[in-house]
Structures are given as structure tokens and as C-alpha cells.
Amino acid sequence: MATHIRCGSLFTGKSTSAEKDQTIVVEDERVSFVGPTATAPRPAAADKVIDHGAAFVSPGLIDVHVHLSYGNAHNEEDIDLYAPVEFRAVRAMMGAQQVLAAGYTALADPAITGRVTIAVRDAINAGLYVGPRISCSGRQITPRQGLADYYPTWIGVPETSVGVLVRSVTEAIEEIRTEVKDGVDFIKIAADGVYINPQTGELGGCFSQGELDAIVGEAHRLGRKVISHARGKEATLQSARAGCDVIFHAFYIDDAAIDICLAKNIMLCPTFALMVNGYEFTQATDGNYRARDMMKRIVEEGVPNLLKAKQAGVKFLVGTDSGFAITPYGEWHARELEFYVKLMGFTPAEALQATTVNNATMLRDGADIGTIEVGRFADLLVVDKDPLADIRILQDKKNIVAIYKGGAAVKVPKHVFNPAKVSKFSYDMWRDMYTQERVKQVPTRSIAAE
Ligand SMILES: [Zn+2]
Questions:
Q1: Which one, of 391, 230, 204, lies nearest residue 306 by Cα?
Q2: 137 C-alpha vs ligand 1 centroid, how far in Å?
Q3: How far apart are CA 353 and CA 342, in angstroms?
Q4: How far apart are CA 331 and CA 329, in angstroms?
Q5: Predicted model pTM
Q6: How far apart are CA 242 and CA 236, in angstroms?
Q7: Which end of the chain has fewer surrounding CB within 10 Å, N or C?
Q8: Has residue 270 got a pLDDT over 90?
Q9: Which residues contact 151 (CB under 8 A, 6 or more apart)?
Q10: Ligand 1 centre and the CA of 321: distance in Å?
């Protein structure tokens, strides 16, 4: 039995325009025909016909930067310490479903805790739960002073952290081999340090070039792509030289790194949502309030560098760093597309291609998704407004008419949950310091008077 899906307007991802009055025929989860309804095969008696009227149909969207094990975390300790990894896995399944319900039929998770996302991916693939297609890394590999080595040395990087501390190339290679044995789809490394280079006044890289070359070489030898977290100029250049497949952030990419990205076909994924949401939404009562100007500055300084890379022809992926309290699952994925249009000069069609066609290349099963064409999985998003006229319509879930995964309409149960019980297990006692001086400045109460 085949399913015939009629679309008022169809964006296959193969060009930058949408075609009117098209039909997609699905057999065994995959597209067997796509083209004008007038030339489509006649439905057999047993076939199912779904007519979406004037609706707009695109490939299911993909977000390559979703951290399913973070649980909409309020802080780094919240990610690493307080919830047992078993709870994180159960919670991650719900997070994955919320991403799907936003029209995202696939995602990549770069940097997990335990084997949380591997378990979620496998449970979905086994048919136990409805969820998006998932590719994931293991813990992100970091040396001393690397991005994920944020606790003091006397605590170290806990086993339950999003990062794994490697003290030598040998340890890094052992970690890569272990992750590959455990079933990761790609490797994630933290190339940024946490220190400012005293010579340049800029954020420094944390690995030496030789170390990075060896790490990336081993991942590639085992058939795994490598995503590097590199915001600073040095880490970005080092990541490019080492041949990482994707560089996340890259806000301070320079000409030398742009040239290498072009030569080696390395893609960039800036991830504006975390920074822009951080600047625009963070309240005075949030600890990150003091960091909001820094977030704004990084975006403002980064956009001209990224634009240079785009104009030179470097390809872009799209991701949001969802999984923090400022980027909860299912909420802001499509906002990134608005930034690509507003800040990076993408047309809505180019932004849509970046988040479908380009993003698919990062996924393990990427050759099967990302465009609507014969042989690929029929993963579709149907909306009742035109995102090529206004890309922001994808942010409003009320505009979603249907979501198909492998040609089957997916229905995600609406979860009402208590946010206080899914993250923030840390002891949040006092934010202020109540010296005698401070107490004179704030309103107080009196037990005696009550
Ligand atoms: Zn991230």
C-alpha cells in the first residue's frame, strides 16, 4: 500500500524555489515518486490519499546542536552533577519528542553525558517510542584548561560530566575507541581553552596542533566525523588545520582558517540562538545577567567574520544549543533560521536548505534524509503558511499541519511537566551576600513583628 501526499506548494530542498500542486508517493517509508500531481501515478484502491490543500511542504527540519542530556539546564553543575544519568535518559526521551513536535524530524547531539543519547536513539530506532532520527557524539573530549574542564583541579572532570578529560594523546585515542565501541555517530572535541592568551589577549586553543591532528586522524580512521567546539580564532584555525568536519561557533574565524575550510570542505555552525536568546531574554534575577553584554559582543564581532566565510563559499549548518534553560527543547529551533536571514543574509530558501540539505550531511543516516527525492525517507513538515515569504512562521507550532517521519504522520503527546522537577537539582540558597551594609539596602522582615 502506498500513501499519496498532495501538496499545494512543495520545497524539495533540491532548488531554492517551491513548486505548486505536487504529489509525493510513499512506499515502505521512502519516497517512490515526487512531481506534479497531474503526472503522478494514479492511486490504487488500497492506497491512502492525503490532500494537504494549499499547505507548504518541506523536508523535515534538522537541528544539529541539541543536547538531549542537559535537561534544560540552569547551569553547568545542573548538566553534570545532580540528576543520575538514568533519569537524564528518561528526561532526554521527552526532550527529543518536543524537538520532533516542533517540526524537527532529525537532530544531532554533540556532547552527551553517560550514554544517554545513544540509549534514546536506539530506543526510538527500535520502535519503543516516537521520536526524531538522532545522531550523537559521546562526551566531548577536553584537555586541561579545555572548555569542559571548568571545575577546579581538586574536583576534576566528573564521570557524569558532559566532558571527558584526556591528559595525553594516548588517552584521547583510548576515549575515541571506547566511544566508537559504544556506538557514537561522530566525535566531539572541545578545541577552545578557558584562558586568554597573554600574547594576543584572545581566547586560546587548548590542544597543541599535533595533538589535534592525531585525535582527528584517529576518529577519521574509525570512520567518524569530528565536530570541534571553537569560538576563538586560534582554536578555529587549529580545528581547520586538523581537518575537523564541522566547526561550531567559529565567531573569530580568520582568512587563513576560511581558506582551509574551503580547501577541505569544512562546514561552520555558529549557533546564534544561545547567544541572542541569552542577551535578549536573560533577566536581572538570572546569574548570567552579567554575561549578557559579552554574548551580544560575540555576536556583533562574529557576524562580519562569518559573513566573510559565507561570501567565500564556506557551507553552513544550523544548530541552536538547545537543552539549556535559555533554549528549552522544542521552543527556539526555528529561531536560528530567522538569524540566518537577518544577520547572515541568507534568503529564507537558503536558510531552509541549510537546515535540511546541509544539516543532513552531518548525520549518520544523512544520505537518506534532508531532501524530498525518490529513495529517501519521507520525512516531511507541512505548514499552512509560506516560510519562503516569512521564515519566522516556522517558530509558531500553531502553523504546523502535519509532521511525517518515514511517510507516517507523527503525533507527539503534549507533555505538561513541572520544570522544577526535571532540572535544577542544585542547592539554590542565597544569591546575595547579607553583610550588615547590604541588609541596610534591602527590604527585610521582622519575626518579632509577625
Ligand atoms: Zn553545545
A1: 230
A2: 11
A3: 16
A4: 6
A5: 0.95
A6: 10
A7: C
A8: yes
A9: 157, 158
A10: 5
